[in-house]
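Protocol step 4 of 5: obtain the predicted structure for the target chain.
Materials: sequence only (see below). No template structures provided, no constraints applied. The aim of this step is simply to have a reference model before the mutagenesis design in step 5. Sequence pasted as it appears in the construct record:
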Amino acid sequence: MQENTIVFQLMGLDDAVKQEIIKAEPLVAKNLDAILERFYDTVTKFPEMASLFSSPERVTHARVAQKAHWLKLFSGKFDSDYIASIRKIGSVHYAVGLPPEPYMAAYTRVISELIEIIAQAHKSKGINRTDVKRMAQQQSAVVKAALFDMHMAVSVYLQEERTAKVIALTRMADTVEDDAGNAVEIVANKTIEMSQRASEMARSATDVGNDCQTVANASSIALENAETVAAATEQLSISISEIASQIASASQITGSAVTSATQSRDTITRLSSAVDRIDQVAKLINDIAAQTNLLALNATIEAARGWRCGQRLRCRRQRSQKPSQSNRQSH
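Step 4 output (structure tokens):
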């Protein structure tokens, strides 16, 4: 309201001007229908303007509304009822997409017609110096009223436009903030997921290390058993050589058995002892072989378990690499 007061003062819309506006009201009302008819005939000739009026009914509605508003304007009151009316006009212009430039150009034609109507009315009565002054005062008052009305409509239009821009920028800022928050949350979740997978990989590496140590221990035991078997084999070879020697001696003793029965019995006794030793060695070899087979089986099982752990580690590494690649592609 304070801004309107300043505009009133700048445009010289004082009480005297308002009285001239009120005096012009009957003349304006008499010619208003014809002025509006010519106004909308001119407007609808331009495609850009005609598109705002989709049917003759829309043109009629606009004409009736504009007539009611101009009658309020030329009442000279400029009260809250008039302010509400002009604000509605400015808001409608913004809503339908009517820019200020063609509106102001069309309004200029109306102002020209009003000036001409006032001039013709005074001429018909006969013009003297006093009448010329009155005509000029009335024309000036009408022009000031029309310009103030145009100013108000354009101001409301621009205010609506600024409000719409602020709303759009606010929505854009909210959208950017939400998107940024979502992106940060996604990155945080991916970081936690990668940390968990790294922990799983570390545990898997530890398990593989333990399994490898078990396999190494089993291999060491198998090596010791192999050395024991080699030593037993060497001892068996010595025993066999001794048996061969004893057999040779037994053959000699058997040849001379007829002459020496006592020597034969001694020889047979030694041969029996040698056979017992062979049985013991053979039993030892069988025991060692059985233990070696068991250790070899355990080593095979541990090796297979270590291979499976290695496979699991490679699979986990591949899964962890896929999210990382997708993250780099999204960035």
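Step 4 remarks: The CA atoms of residues 43 and 105 lie 10 Å apart. The chain has a mean pLDDT of 80.
Proceed to step 5.
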